[in-house]
Design brief:
Blueprint (H helix, E strand, L loop, with lengths): L6 H20 L5 H19 L5 H21 L3 H40 L7 H6 L6 E9 L5 E12 L2 E12 L5 E7 L6 H8 L4 E6 L5 E8 L1 H5 L5 E3 L8 H12 L7 H8 L4 E3 L7 E6 L4 E5 L5 E2 L1 H8 L14 E4 L5 E4 L1
Antiparallel strand pairs: 1-2, 2-3, 3-4, 5-6, 6-7, 8-9, 9-10, 10-11, 12-13
């Protein structure tokens, strides 16, 4: 657990939040004795957990909470003999049962979260779960900074919300890419989006990623996603989905451009797969200039870049590859695309 987190304080704050929620729902219909019973059970069980391995600061709060529990116990069980029996039952029966259940649920939760992390490429953060997740806070996060071979830096923050005793739910991760020049681009990728680390990195670099998912009718469907740059400028970081693929045929565009460039490496399966993952794919032409290309499905075109990864037009690329034929070149255009107000692709033939 994170030594910087006071679990006893978090226990108290969790009760305050729960009490506010109950008052909001029940209003003036709250039964005082019932509320005392709930509070007593909440703090009693919580003290079983936070008393184990408590640090000095936590022990101060634990003493306060024990005093609160003692007062509640006296109010709920005025008979001293009955009160003694209640304490005995709590120490001999309730405490070991509760701790066994808590530890089992926590271990299962760590395994489940580790599996989720591995599936989306965040396996390196799984080792921090046991050490930093305290299971008392309502929401927690794990942070990591990674250096990339390109000189960029990637800051990641995995986020969780409490889902029950000994259990946290992974809600997603926030990624921030820091370029070599210091420029930053960030977005929150929810767990429901099924965006993994590799996809997130491509999106943060400005690429578009083709995602597959199961539709309501059970059939496999596909959709392109990218970062919504306009939303980013207003302080909101969102994913932007096409929902319609009819206007952008990546495989056909690659073939058309390969023919026009007389460079059939452009239409290879390796290039196609790389572009679908949102990558800027390198194409090497023996004896001629190397270049990069990237899919731009929302603009219904391909983007071309020189070896320095500076964008260039199709005509400039043709000149680099075939100077003698560049004057007769017309870039292949199959469709004209407009983007509607709902950001769906509108295709005019």
């Amino acid at each position: 657990m994170d030594p910087g987190v006071n679990r006893a304080l978090q226990l108290y704050l969790a009760w305050e939040e729960r009490q506010k929620e109950m008052e909001k729902v029940l209003g003036g219909a709250i039964d005082l004795r019932k509320m005392q019973q709930l509070k007593y059970a909440f703090f009693s069980m919580g003290l079983f957990r936070v008393s184990i391995g408590a640090n000095e600061k936590e022990r101060l709060y634990i003493q306060v909470l024990r005093s609160v529990v003692a007062k509640l116990r006296k109010s709920l069980y005025p008979n001293p003999v009955l009160r003694l029996l209640v304490v005995a039952k709590e120490m001999l029966v309730d405490r070991p049962l509760h701790l066994r259940r808590f530890n089992r649920l926590r271990e299962e939760n760590v395994l489940s979260l580790s599996s989720q992390f591995s599936a989306i490429g965040l396996g390196g953060m799984a080792a921090d779960l046991t050490g930093k997740v305290d299971y008392e806070q309502g929401a927690v996060s794990l942070d990591i900074m990674r250096g990339i071979s390109t000189g960029e830096k990637l800051a990641l923050q995995a986020r969780f919300v409490k889902a029950g005793l000994g259990s946290y739910k992974f809600t997603g991760f926030h990624g921030k890419l820091i370029g070599v020049d210091g420029a930053e681009r960030s977005c929150f990728f929810s767990a429901d989006s099924r965006i993994g680390l590799s996809d997130a990195l491509s999106l943060l670099r400005g690429g578009s990623v083709l995602k597959s998912y199961q539709g309501l009718d059970g059939r496999l469907e596909q959709s392109w996603v990218k970062l919504d740059q306009e939303a980013r400028m207003t302080g909101s970081t969102l994913l932007f989905s096409s929902g319609d693929l009819s206007g952008f045929d990546l495989k056909r565009q690659l073939l058309e451009h390969a023919i026009a460039l007389e460079c059939y490496a452009v239409s290879s399966d390796a290039v196609l797969r790389g572009l679908e993952k949102g990558n800027m794919v390198s194409v090497s032409v023996p004896g001629k200039a190397d270049f990069f290309l990237r899919a731009a499905p929302f603009e219904n075109r391909l983007e071309f870049f020189d070896v320095a990864k500076e964008e260039m037009s199709f005509s400039v690329l043709k000149t680099l590859l075939n100077p003698e034929k560049s004057l007769s070149l017309v870039e292949p255009m199959i469709f004209k695309q407009e983007t509607g107000v709902n950001h769906q692709l509108e295709i005019n033939r």
